[in-house]
Specification:
- There is one protein chain.
- By secondary structure, this protein is α+β, with helices and mostly antiparallel strands.
- The protein folds into two domains: about 140 residues, Fructose-1,6-Bisphosphatase, subunit A, domain 1 (Fructose-1,6-Bisphosphatase, Chain A, domain 1, 2-Layer Sandwich); about 110 residues, D-Maltodextrin-Binding Protein, domain 2.
- Helix content is about 35%, strand content about 25%.
- Strands 3-4-5-6-7-8-9 form a seven-stranded mixed sheet, sandwiched between helices. It has a five-stranded mixed sheet with strand order 11-10-12-14-13, sandwiched between helices. The protein has a two-stranded antiparallel ribbon with strand order 1-2.
- Helix 1 packs antiparallel against helix 2 and helix 6 packs parallel to helix 7.
- The longest helix is centred in the N-terminal third of the chain and has 19 residues.
- The chain is globular and about 50 Å long.
- The mean pLDDT is about 90.
């Protein structure tokens, strides 16, 4: 059986190199194109994905890829079989286009029916989160854990809005009303990978979103779990990165979040 943790130092080096490339694009004029009404892609997304694929192929030649800018609809329907790098080269492209610093490089290694490695790098903020299964979560090489908040009233909750937000306003607004009335506040940085990393280090107590893709969630899923948190679907059922509904928390408030989101009239 592969000891995936042995790959972590090299994977960190690859993600740091990608972060350096992202910063070069950060300080250059943006070249932006539309994939959908509010779904953007930039030259940075494409260049970063190319770099990550090249470097990670050298690291684990037998691994497949599931990456945002090159994955087809068929790729998303396929089962995850064998080692697979799950990559979002630039999570928060809209943020990047506007110069808002919550942009992340998200890299996960899937194998043996689970995420084995997870890395989320926020190069503008100079933060790199990493985890290997069974070895805890680290931020800039320092161990981190989820928060110890015990109730919703004292919780800071994050969420995100899908590109299909117009078609799904009733549940989104219903959940926001519920969270605003029950928690200390809601934040929406616009990068699911960053949000999950922030749950892992205790800055957010919970995060929920719908219509996510595997590359948005896979690395952050491991970060939260290894930091002592819990990840399920919004209704509390078992999570899998191919399922678009996600609720992550510090585990202490998870049942209360499931109950509150479930009773919202959608």
């Amino acid at each position: 059986m592969t000891d995936h943790a042995l790959l972590l130092p090299q994977a960190i080096d690859v993600v740091r190199e990608a972060g350096q490339m992202l910063m070069r694009y950060w300080h250059a004029p943006r070249e932006i194109h539309h994939k959908g009404r509010i779904d953007l892609v930039t030259t940075a997304d494409l260049a970063l994905e190319k770099l990550l694929k090249e470097r990670l192929s050298d690291l684990l030649p037998e691994a497949a890829f599931l990456a945002e800018e090159s994955a087809s609809a068929e790729d998303l329907r396929k089962s995850l079989n064998g080692p697979t790098w799950i990559i979002d080269p630039l999570d928060g492209t809209t943020n990047f286009a506007h110069g808002f610093p919550f942009v992340a490089i998200s890299v996960a290694l899937w194998d043996d029916s689970d995420v084995q490695l997870g890395l989320v790098h926020l190069p503008v903020l100079q933060e790199l989160f990493h985890a290997a299964k069974g070895q805890g979560t680290h931020l800039n090489d320092v161990p981190v854990q989820v928060s110890k908040i015990l109730d919703l009233e004292n919780s800071l909750v994050a969420t995100g809005f899908p590109y299909s937000v117009r078609e799904q306003l009733p549940p989104i607004l219903g959940w926001m009303e519920t969270m605003l009335s029950l928690t200390q506040g809601i934040r929406r940085p616009g990068s699911a990978a960053s949000d999950l990393a922030y749950v892992a280090c205790g800055r957010f107590d919970a995060f929920y979103e719908i219509n996510l893709k595997p590359w948005d969630m896979a690395a952050g899923w491991l970060l939260v779990r290894e930091a002592g948190g819990m990840v399920t679907q919004i209704d509390g059922s078992e999570f899998h990165p191919r399922i678009p509904s996600l609720l992550a928390s510090n585990a202490q408030i998870h049942a209360a979040m499931v109950e509150a989101l479930g009773r919202t009239d959608n």
